[in-house]
Amino acid sequence: MLHLINACVIALLMFFYTVPNISAITYGRCVSPFNGNGTCVQLIECQFIVDIISGPLNAENEEKLRKSQCGYDNTFKDNSHRIVVCCPEKHLKDPTSHIRIGRQEGLGNVLPFAGECGSTISDFIYGGNKTRILDYPWMALLRYKTRSNELEFLCGGSLINSRYVLTAAHCISRSNSNNERVLHSVRLGEWDIRTDPDCEVDINGKKSCAPPFTELGIEKAIAHPNYISNSNEQFYDIALLRLEQSVSYTDFIRPICLPASTDLCDSMFVNSTMEVAGWGATNKPKAASSPVKMAINVGIWETDKCKIIYKSSNRFIDGTHQLCAGGMSGIDSCRGDSGGPLMMPELINNRFIYFVAGVISFGPKPCGYNGWPGVYARVGNYVEWIKGAMEPLFVSYGVCNTPVGVPGHCVPLSDCPSLLNLVDFVLKDNNILNHLRNSFCGSDVNATSGADKTRVCCPDNPNAENNDRESGKMLPPPGTCGITFSMRIFGGVESQVDEYPWSALIKYQRPYNATALNCAGVLINQRYVLSAAHCLRNPSIPITWKLDSVRLGEWDTRTDPDCYETADGNKNCWPPYVEVKIERIIVHDKYIPHSQSEFYDIALIRMADNVNYSETIRPICLPLSNVLRQMTFENEYADVAGWGRTEVSSYSAVKRTISLLIWDTDVCAQKFQTIQTPVNKTLQLCAGGQPMQDTCQGDSGAPLTMRGRLINSPHFVVGIVSFGIQPCGMASWPGIYTRVTYYVDWILNNLED
């Protein structure tokens, strides 16, 4: 526990000097393990306990600190007020404090009793980190080779499907001229160009890393045919790069959307605010740049005003071809890259999707000059050209049957992501090796690389993004494109190994003996886990995935067992995690998959065997008492913990936690009514809505939990993560949770001995 308590000291002390004084509140009498009789008060009101935490700790004091915790006051968010401790009487700040009455929780039949459920070893948890590694995963860096064979990043771009990057024509024409620099490759999945892989370390010293970047050669560079490189106006400054092979989408590499509707294509977006990102590279190699991806917000100008500004420098601006944005001192797209995207988030199907509205073309010199906006190629004017210039993602050499009997196409291995991704595992798994051998369907002796020479029977649809090329379906649809996952790691803190011991991960079996941990749940007794119905019965889960088991006692999915280092340098380890096969799932009979409302989004998992409780595996309590069942919990704080996973994506390897404010459901319902999504105050509750803080910190199916106010009162589950606005962490948009109090009887009726 030493490392747990020391981790909070700095955060606590900083807060004590900044929080205004409030009259003390007491929560009843208690017996202090330090010095006889005491009173339960907020941590900030007991200087005696604060002084102990701030000083050197021995094992005896650590144990007494644990036993000094009375409970939580969930009407406060900050832990110095929220954590309630037993303060010895002679150390109380105010003996005439106000008394606050707690609530009594009830018991149940096959459910564990209070104290057996809902208890956790460590509660003094502080620290955490924010990261921007996942911001703008479509960003690309263009690399050039000099006459001295050095490689430099001189332009940017944006991935628009698995094979093409959108950039500026002047980034290509410069390479095609007599200039000594030649366009060499495209880098994707990059964040900090100084490191590979990119990692960040939180204040607890925990390091998390992204996968290595991907760098691909360029098969073809296609500048707009009307672009004139030495023109003063720089009309048609737009181009495409066809990569030497398709890339597989990940959380770190995803495409941005093109404006699809006529309204978006025709809009000038005047007075809108958009985003620009990049590394500060320009067409001047010696210009200052940032090693880390940066982002700014820029306002869109009226074209007529922009024309007047640039007319003084003999440049003509045309609203058909161009957009103007920025113009604030020190803020401009020099912070991005030539060729990089001007981006606009649009709300579609309850989530914000990014579209590329412009491509960085030129601006004032020096950039960031007050009153002079940057100029961007207006992408809406070029959407039809982009569609027409793109070739099919790959060419099929005939139809075939895969080794598992699925129809496929004979294509170069480099054009079959699902099989290409298996190549790295052939030496480790004979089954994969045999599968690749049996997929062989020919070779191309004229190809230069092995991945291009080898042809395989690919189960992937060769035109999965291009069922109808004329209508532009070669491009990924919104929801595949335009999603950035960076908000998933904002605003939360890393939990400790023995915290939230009721957290569960749901394991799926995937093809080729692969597995995935892609949803969460909460242990409610030795045999049952509570989760979301959409995790267990959802058309968005691939049909090749099968529910397999439940993992309990997990903390860091990269290690088994989970260990930590004590202050004296010793290594302590917890027991290995436990996986139990799934015997049966019970989905609420009124749940409708993919409904707009997600009402009745609750389910039970019955495991094949009972689990044994331990410090890292314990059940949560249900809100059984009539008092709890009738409560709305509005304006109180609750906790959610998990690994940042949803049913279709993943992020954090380590369990994380965040505290969220529960909304007035009527206010929440009005908010979601603006996007035609009903919210039912009886069936659901809303929580969160603070910028960069949301249940992407947890998982689909993870529990929203609270702790009672009585001495040693247990934790109980009030909600199950259901859905929310994407990307998560959007200000003023709470997450939606299944309200567990409504379903207590349903849960009890579906539990068997």
Q: Overview of this structure, please?
A:
The protein is of the alpha+beta class and 753 residues long. It is built from 15 helices and 38 strands. Strands 24-34-33-36-37-38-35 form a seven-stranded antiparallel β-sheet, with no helix packed on it. A six-stranded antiparallel barrel has the order 6-7-8-13-12-9. A six-stranded antiparallel β-sheet has the order 15-14-17-18-19-16, with no helix packed on it. A hairpin with a 3-residue loop joins strand 1 and strand 2. The longest helix has 15 residues, at 2-16. The protein is globular and about 85 Å long. 47% of the residues are buried. Mean pLDDT is 75; it is low at 1-23, 95-131, 281-288, 462-474, 483-492 and 645-650.
Tell me the strand order in the biggest sheet: 24-34-33-36-37-38-35
Discrete helix count: 15
Q: How much beta, percentage-wise?
A: 25-35%
Class based on secondary structure composition and strand pairing:
alpha+beta
CA radius of gyration: 29 Å
**How many β strands by DSSP?**
38
Main beta-sheet annotation: 7 strands, antiparallel
Q: Look at the structure and give the mean pLDDT.
A: 75
**How would you describe the shape?**
globular
Q: What is the terminal-to-terminal distance?
A: 36 Å
Quaternary state of this entry equals single chain
Percentage of residues assigned to helices:
10-25%
Low-confidence stretches: 1-23, 95-131, 281-288, 462-474, 483-492, 645-650
